[in-house]
Amino acid sequence: MISISAVDLRAEETELVLEVLRSGRLAQGPKVEALERAFATAHQVDHAIAVNNGTTALVAALQALDLQPGDEVITSPFSFVATLNAILEAGATARFADIGADYCLHPASVERLVGPRTRALMPVHLYGLPCDMDALVSIAQRHGLSVVEDSAQAHGARIWGRPVGSYGIGCFSLYATKNITSAEGGLITTNEASIADRLRLLRNQGMRARYQYEIVGHNYRMTELQAAIAIPQVARLEQINAARAGNAARLNEGLADVPGLVLPSVPPGREHVYHQYTVRVTEEARTSRDQLADALAASEVATGIYYPRLMHDYPCYEGHPGVGTDETPVAAAVVGEVLSLPVHQLLTEEDLERMIEAVRKVLL
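Above: the chain sequence. Below: its structure as tokens.
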């Protein structure tokens, strides 16, 4: 089976993990600080704050803005549910703007949704493709809004050379399937010293020094073991992303003429890092999305549906006072068509050829 994701750990990770184990220092310490420095440099920001997972990164970023009940955060309805859960955990109300053909927030839809209670925008750089941040930041500036970037899938992605996570408060995940992984873990990026200071207090029970409590905090700390696993991957990030982009280019080349199959496209100025290679199986295709997935599984090609429903389209959110009911027709249509194919850096040329042949066999 060609897997949808793969973990690429090497000797450098092993050595750093052993170094931590031998040191006896397992809780947050010098390895976490080293990861923060490397990640901040890679994303051209002044501060990176490590936390225990990507959802925590989103929650802490919103908490740092001191949102109040009734404050609204505009985000995408088409994302992993952590995006919505973080807004609710921070005590805010989620509002949903529609997406464009790039699967990212459509600026015009965002503009229409801004109201007197709007406090922040949370664009989602989905699948590794950055949003149109110039347009979204312009909207935020006109209305005095904060920007929290859900960059969980977009490590190292850029817009006109500027990294995601540098436009506002950036939130990254180091979950097992991400371009950089530490099994679990997260990072928050910012250029604002006051935000960085508050985030460091929030993650450490509100302490600036031992038993010196300044705010109500939490235990959001990352371990030394998690940091040790991630540090070498930050050094390889450009290599990792280049390999994924190369695999995506080969898939595009092999599938370009398949009727009814919409391939990923990259708008000018944006750099896609291909956390996922996601196609749309439209009504013009010979088979449905689900039939294609079943056929590929029979050919030992794994696929993923990210995501089968809109975030808030589950019974547990029905009637929730913090969940908006905004109409998002493009996102509602996309959930029935998207299918992700393997694109990770460990794929071989033979794997890519097998995948292309399998898709073409079903759809041509």
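The CA atoms of residues 280 and 338 lie 4 Å apart.
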